[in-house]
Amino acid sequence: MRKLALALAATATLALGLPASPAAASIETAEAKATAASAADIAREDMFVTFGTTELKPGRFLWKNGAEPGQVTRVVISLGDQLAFAYHHDELIAVSTISSGTEKNPTPTGIFNVLEKKPMHRSRKYENAPMPFMQRIDQFGVALHAGHLPGYPASHGCIRLPHKFAAKLYQVTRVGTPVLIGA
User: Fold this and answer.
1) pTM of the full predicted structure?
2) Measured distance CA(76)–CA(37) in Å, rounded
3) Mean pLDDT by 10 residues, the chain (183 residues)
4) Which domains does the chain have, with CATH numbers?
């Protein structure tokens, strides 16, 4: 029952709290950060229920067999667990390890939207670094993309994903897809 109440609260906050237009796509208020953290807690529970595990080795991901091939309706990131969760409506369909920002270059927390997608992008800030399957979530260049996964936070603020997971996720998201990032 507690899980259902949290899910409904998060959904209601999302429905009321997200901007109507992807142009104003980030909400980094205390309330948005709390909602994202709550969504990450629920996602960890969903991972166990759906996949029967609470751990993945760096660079690994799980995609539910027979999952509906439709759009991912939200992505939830747990910075503390270094995991990304993909949902189709209320169903967890995938989970992946990540590498997020360091203390020096932290990944922002709160509620964001995918603002731009490019199958191959190169960083303008960091020596033309490749960012395959880039999905930008803020105006400063933070994005979800394929990259090196050492098993701990190591990026300049982006959320790195396993290459095959990033490619698959790229295919089932759209500009405007919500991304909730919890500490």
Assistant:
1) 0.86
2) 9
3) 42 43 70 97 97 93 82 96 96 97 97 96 78 94 96 96 97 96 95
4) 2-10+24-182 (2.40.440.10)
